[in-house]
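Annex B. Sample input.
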Amino acid sequence: MADNDRIEGAVKNIGGKIKEGVGNITGDEKLKAEGKADQLEGKVQNTVGGIKDTLNEKR
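Annex B, continued. Sample output.
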């Protein structure tokens, strides 16, 4: 079973991509930056979840 961090990270990453896209369309630099930050946070959270999954599989 996937760790919740992986799921939440993936959702945050997708949300960040959407936010960045809207920022690109509207020319809102702040929204673009927030989207990129959300994507980075989501990727980190997803990685942490992957590590947790790996550790749980070894038990």
